[in-house]
Amino acid sequence: MNFRRIAAVASKEWREIVRDRLFFALAFVVPAALTILFGYGLSLDVENIPMALVDHDRTALSREYANRFIGSRYFQFKGYADDERQLTNALSDSKLRAVIVIPPHFQQNLLAGHPAEVQTLIDGTFPFRALTTKGYVEAINASMNVDVVSDYLARAAGIPLARARAMLQPVQLQVRYLYNQSVKSIWSLAPKLIMAIMMISPPFLTALGVVREKESGSIYNIYASTVRRSEFLIGKLLPYVAISTLNVGLLWAIATLLFGAPFKGDFVFFALASILYVTCTTGIGLLVSVAVRTQVAAMMGTAILTVVPAVLYSGVLIPISSLSEVASLIAHLLPGMYYTDIVMGSFLKGVGWRGLWGNMVVLALYATTLFALGYLLFHKRVKS
Question: Domain residue spans in the chain?
């Protein structure tokens, strides 16, 4: 293997990248732009739910009940209405996502020890948000129930209010959030975006870079030269591995500095794991470039092999443990899942070599396999 020939091929490829402004933008601008767009646009936090109230009772207790929703950070109060039918259009137009309807005689029934049925209308268009909204409503309602019943019990039994509340809640629940104490979805999402974008960008660049030479015919100059297959492939792919590694560093800076995601792990371990990962994804692009002859086919093939795995089978939106057996098997056959564990461990959990060395081994095996296949499938051909 001649390192000078490898350097010559790599230098030629770098000049081609710099010369093509569109390709240069795809290489350096698009990954950062996608991270920023998805980071601000894709939020898993269910807050500021537009909500309206209908108070048919208009008493002190009904106002207290309503104020619990109005003062909650999970709801954005849009106003009162005289009748729930007035809010039908607002619900259908998605201007409201929830309506709380307090019935007549609400206070009278509660003070008499009778139940009062509060109706909640929730937009079920987005099931996850609807179920989360239902949970918020139930939590606020449960808090109101405890206060009303404990007050009634204290007056009836002649005991202090604090004791009455303790009697109604003998089991006190204490919740501690580990690793993401603020429970901010962006802290979890930003590291995963590094995985997803580095699953998509390097294969696109690699496949387009190789196939572009096929379309222009310049690759036949390589076929006719003394450059070996291994030298050509390594020299061709080195610039893309280097570009992708630089992009990982840029996306790391965006995640930590722009989105405020904490980084608790070993940066050296993270950097080495990232180089392995982009080597894997660059290898995917190599296989695509071997199989197709046009840039359009390269883009379509790369999209099929990378976009779906990056979104569905890597743990970005759905935890791997929640996938079906078949989907979980597919996830374990792809590099994204292993790198997701690495970025999440490095950013939020402070896990390094000791806990994630197995993932590094898998990525190394994956990269070796992809490049071996690329080497076997790539053949020098004489122009016909």
Answer: 3-43+184-377, 49-168
